[in-house]
Design brief:
The structure holds three protein chains of three kinds.
Chain A: H1 3-18, H2 20-35, H3 42-67, H4 75-95, H5 100-114, H6 116-127, H7 133-151, H8 162-168, E1 171-176, E2 180-183, E3 196-200, H9 201-219, H10 221-231, H11 233-238, H12 243-269, H13 280-290, H14 302-322, H15 327-346
Helix pairs in contact in A: 2-14, 3-9, 3-12, 3-13, 3-14, 4-5, 4-7, 4-12, 5-12, 6-7, 6-12, 8-12, 9-10, 10-12, 13-14, 13-15
Chain B: E1 5-14, E2 17-27, E3 32-37, H1 43-50, E4 58-63, E5 66-68, H2 73-79, E6 81-84, H3 96-100, E7 107-110, E8 114-117, H4 119-132, H5 149-162, E9 167-171, H6 179-193, E10 198-202, H7 206-212, E11 215-220, E12 223-229, H8 235-243
Parallel strand pairs in B: 3-10, 3-11, 6-9, 9-10
Antiparallel strand pairs in B: 1-2, 1-4, 4-5, 7-8, 11-12
Chain C: H1 2-11, H2 13-20, H3 22-37, H4 44-69, H5 77-96, H6 104-118, H7 120-131, H8 137-156, H9 167-172, E1 175-179, E2 185-187, E3 203-207, H10 208-226, H11 228-238, H12 240-245, H13 250-276, H14 288-298, H15 310-329, H16 336-354
Antiparallel strand pairs in C: 1-2, 1-3
Classes of the chains: A mainly alpha, B alpha/beta, C mainly alpha.
Chain lengths: 357, 249, 359
């Protein structure tokens, strides 16, 4: 093999190595298609996205924080907290005689506003009092957990509107022989009749938000400053970026996304649950790291985080379809998480040397 | 000739220690002045008063003939006094043009509503300034982390030039660079004279100093002990001044 | 601005003393407060109960203290404990075979030894990843969290491991001294011939768990305070670069630290099986590792490394434990405890900011 082809091969290996996450996802898909009967179906694929929403949203939240070099341990419990207050408010509004749709909308909007609060406090503690992010957000985990449990002392929210269920478990597009196509509204069909259901509503909702954030991170000043703070905080300060203020915004964004997943949880399950997102923290951070971000900050993109989350979601769903208890999932995610860091070290970015002399 | 930057009897004390004692000196536009001295001689403190990191306890600073108060690095920046730090103050995880525009990003309207980054503009402008300074970078879209040390220095300097720096302070610009890269940086520094900049260089490397500086200022124990034109001195004399076996003012 | 405040505060030695020991003062304050608000709070029985239940948290916090001093973090301790508890349970269960197999003593002994050896492995793996391959501690130990949790769940198939010898709880929940006024006293159990039904008539002093945990703490305290191992631990956390230049084998030391942490977590798993009589996996919401970190920080350590004391961390654990217990006994809804721990943590960090040079 001569030098040129050899270098070309190395380059190819490096390029493939940098895309290991995508390759891994493909291998997963092939594996489960071969060994999990019934995996290759529209239904299962929609399920992957439907149940993956929490990790997509919390992962995106965590990504912004991690790019700045921080961490947000509170997202899971902020999500639970938001699910409980939105359920409580919606049921209270209906109790007070409001129509279902306005009650639902008002409850959701108010929750999303209140949901900014934990992030605001986190951000202020971190930027003004210089509390390490780990401690500040763990405190917030405790506080939102406590408040959520207090709110639910007198029982779960009652009289939740069926409308929530229709939205949360409905699809964007239906097709059935006879009624034909219909958007959002499930046509009446005879029991057992064929109906094609395409793209769950909440998947669309989540991906609109994620798409906007991907754009914000990549194309706006806000995104630039996020990377700059994580890359070199001194450079950011010297360039006149208001680092403290930016961090507050980042933690508020994180807490907003956690609240959004709380609201989506209510739409899916028509009830709130304090620990709704508790077990998703590991998955969210794992998704970000598998997606190539570094806990030291400065690196990571939204779509690669979604790729990381998909690896986990496909794994979980695939194992479930195979009938294997999901215990294995924890082991595999743990191994991938660690491997992700090691693989990224083996395939670093291209570097340049002075080619002048 | 008028000085671009001038200090008169500038003094800085830390507790009982007088770090800089009544130092007066000036730098003209288009002139490179090297500040030399042993560790603790006060050269860093002297420079930091001009860049706004420290506030003087006595004396005056003049910029373009007018007396100025420099309370913070931001004050200095807004006047056009830029410091190129050893750690370069670049975000290594970002590409070249993003670094040149860091904190002063150019935006445009997307669909007439949102402010989004005008990457093409920033790319073109950055390319312009790099060309002007005759700097070669493989691609402006590569992260700074992937560049060599000399190239990073060049990016940091271009950034100052692009934002109309009038006066550059360079703290050990060639430290931690290979020989080839030192040449790259020194050539660049010399070429900046043609753009009318005033430059202060702090350096331990006698070779660098004699390669680029027009004038040498030697500090010892907080005082200025030498102010020499390069043509009228030699390395031996300068070393003697630094260690304190003679004094020429 | 914070700088000047901290300068003024540091000048005041009395204030600095209080600030340095604020957790102890808070603990004292809580004890006094709850003695008034909670009926039955101020009693030997209650204090012994709190201490007995805090044993696991104390071990976790001690493990975390070593790691945090080196400016690392170990998120896996809670799940290593679950792994140890379940594995020990399984081994003892198989050997003992509900009385058909080996004697209880031998089954338990073998179970303990094997599990303590096994519990070195997670720490060894995370230590090597962190020290040799520069994986951030957060990621390496989070990975171990997933792996040990998955293995524990696989071993027990998602159910606690039961049908173990009674001897476990008899030792684990026993006391050193059993005493009934007028009828003398006995050690490590009721006097011969006295039935279990009359146990309430006896005053029971010093739970066995105290003796064990005191021994462990003494060893760890000595290790951190009086040995080169301890010195190097502080040195690495204070300035890793300097430690390397001073000739300390930092990589090797870091591996030892994570192995130690994992071993202590394994020990906690053994305590767990003695206290409950069954092998328990760690539920997700338990957050042992986060509460351990909280206790260590409340006890005066800094996540930046270089600072921390074993007994500070123990005080941190007791502060949380008594707060929980006191609120419960005073009839306050227990969920306030989460909020209270959150606030305590923030106080801890703010005090650390104001008095950076304490300790």
């Amino acid at each position: 093999m001569n030098a040129v082809t050899k270098r070309k091969t190395t380059n190819l290996v490096m390029e493939l190595g940098r895309r290991w996450a995508l390759i891994f996802l493909l291998i997963e898909l092939v594996f489960f298609s071969l060994f999990a009967q019934g995996f290759m179906s529209l239904r299962v694929f929609q399920m992957i996205f439907f149940f993956g929403i929490t990790v997509f949203l919390l992962g995106t939240a965590e990504l912004f924080v991690i790019i700045t070099g921080g961490i947000d341990l509170s997202v899971g419990y902020v999500m639970g907290f938001a699910s409980i207050i939105s359920a409580k408010m919606i049921s209270a509004f209906i109790q007070a005689g409001m129509q279902h749709l306005p009650a639902l909308i008002l409850g959701i909007v108010l929750t999303l506003i209140i949901g900014l609060l934990p992030g605001l406090i986190n951000g202020l503690l971190i930027s003004r009092l210089r509390v390490p992010p780990f401690i500040a957000t763990f405190s917030m985990l405790g506080i939102t957990h406590g408040v959520a449990e207090l709110l639910i002392l007198d029982g779960a929210a009652k009289n939740m509107p069926h409308l929530a269920n229709l939205i949360g478990n409905g699809y964007f597009l239906y097709w059935a022989p006879g009624p034909g196509l219909s958007l959002f509204i499930r046509p009446e069909i005879p029991r057992g009749g064929f109906i094609l259901e395409l793209i769950p509503n909440i998947v669309i909702l989540a991906f609109i938000v994620i798409g906007i954030l991907a754009y914000v991170l990549k194309r706006t000043v806000f995104g630039q400053h996020t990377y700059a703070i994580g890359g070199n905080v001194d450079a950011a300060i010297r360039s006149g970026i208001n680092v403290g203020r930016h961090k507050v915004k980042i933690y508020m964004l994180s807490s907003f996304l956690a609240s959004l997943s709380g609201v989506i949880y209510v739409l899916m399950y028509v009830t709130g649950k304090g620990d709704a997102g508790a077990s998703s923290l590991l998955d969210a951070i794992a998704a970000v790291v598998i997606g190539g971000a570094s806990l030291y900050g400065g690196k990571g993109t939204v779509w690669r985080t979604i790729l990381g989350a998909l690896i986990i979601a496909v794994l979980e769903t695939g194992l479930r379809v195979m009938g294997i208890p999901t215990f294995d999932k924890y082991i595999i995610v743990g191994v991938i998480l660690i491997s992700a860091v090691l693989i990224d070290k083996v395939f670093p970015e291209k570097t340049y040397t002075d080619n002048k002399e | 000739m008028d000085y671009l930057v001038e200090t008169k009897n500038i003094t800085k004390r830390f507790g009982g220690l007088t770090a800089v004692n009544k130092v007066s000196f000036g730098v003209e536009a288009g002139e490179i002045v090297a500040v030399l001295g042993d560790n603790g001689a006060g050269k860093s403190t002297l420079i930091k008063m001009i860049s706004g990191v420290h506030q003087p306890d006595g004396g005056q600073i003049f910029f373009q003939g007018k007396e100025v108060d420099i309370h913070s690095p931001m004050d200095a920046l807004s006047m056009g006094i830029e410091t190129i730090y050893q750690d370069l103050a670049l975000a290594e995880n970002m590409n070249v043009y993003s670094n040149i525009f860091l904190g002063r990003e150019k935006t445009k309207k997307a669909w007439g509503i949102f402010d989004v980054l005008d990457s093409q503009y920033m790319y073109d402008e950055s390319l312009g300034v790099l060309d002007k300074l005759n700097i070669k970078i493989p691609s402006l879209r590569n992260n700074v982390r992937t560049l060599s040390g000399g190239q990073r220095q060049a990016v940091a300097i271009s950034r100052s030039i692009y934002w109309n720096a009038k006066f550059l302070i360079m703290d050990e610009p060639t430290a931690a660079l290979g020989v080839a890269q030192q040449h790259l940086v020194l050539d660049l520094v010399k070429s900046l004279k043609d753009h009318g900049l005033g430059i202060i260089i702090i350096s331990h490397q006698m070779h660098d100093v004699f390669a680029v500086a027009d004038r040498l200022i030697v500090m010892r124990r907080g005082e200025k002990v030498g102010d020499l034109k390069k043509e009228e001195t030699n390395p031996d004399e300068v070393v003697n001044l630094i260690v304190g076996s003679e004094s020429v003012v | 601005m914070t700088h000047t405040i901290s300068e003024t505060l540091q000048g005041n030695r009395k204030l600095a003393f209080i600030a340095r020991n604020w957790a102890a003062f808070f603990l004292l304050g809580f004890l006094i407060l709850f003695s008034f608000t909670g009926k039955g709070f101020l009693s030997i029985t209650n204090f012994q109960n709190v201490g007995h239940l805090a044993v696991i948290a104390i071990l976790m916090a001690s493990a975390e203290t070593f790691v945090i001093i080196t400016s690392g973090i170990d998120l896996s301790v809670g799940f290593v404990m679950g792994f140890a508890s379940v594995t020990a349970g399984k081994i003892i269960q198989v050997l003992y075979a509900a009385g058909e197999g080996l004697s209880p003593g031998i089954s338990i002994g073998i179970g303990i030894v094997i599990v303590l050896i096994l519990s070195l492995i997670p720490g060894l793996v995370s230590g090597v990843l962190i020290a040799r391959y520069k994986v951030p501690p957060f990621i390496a130990t989070m990975g171990m969290w997933g792996i040990t949790n998955g293995i524990a769940l696989k071993i027990c198939k998602g159910f606690p491991v039961a049908t173990l010898p009674d001897a476990l709880t008899r030792i684990g929940n026993g006391y050193l001294i059993y005493f009934k006024p007028g009828e003398g006293l006995s050690f490590f159990g009721l006097p011969p011939g006295v039935g279990n039904e009359s146990i309430r008539e006896y005053i029971r002093l010093i739970p066995n768990s105290f003796i064990f945990v005191a021994l462990v703490l003494l060893v760890l305290w000595h290790l951190l305070r009086n040995t080169t191992f301890g010195q190097h631990t502080y040195a690495i956390g204070g300035n890793e670069e300097a430690a390397v230049r001073a000739g300390i084998d930092v990589k090797r030391h870091l591996i030892k630290i994570y192995v130690l942490s994992s071993f202590i977590a394994g020990l906690a798993g053994i305590f767990n099986i003695f206290q409950t009589g069954i092998g328990n996996f760690t539920p997700f919401g338990a957050m042992y590792e986060l509460f351990a970190v909280a206790a260590v920080v409340i006890g005066g350590a800094s996540l930046m490394g270089g600072k921390g004391r074993i007994f500070g961390s123990v005080i941190g654990v007791f502060l949380i434990a008594f707060l929980e217990n006191g609120l419960l006994i005073s009839g306050v809804v227990p969920f306030y405890r989460f909020i209270a721990v959150g606030l305590l943590l923030i106080i801890a960090v703010v005090i650390d900011q104001l008095f950076p040079d304490l300790l």
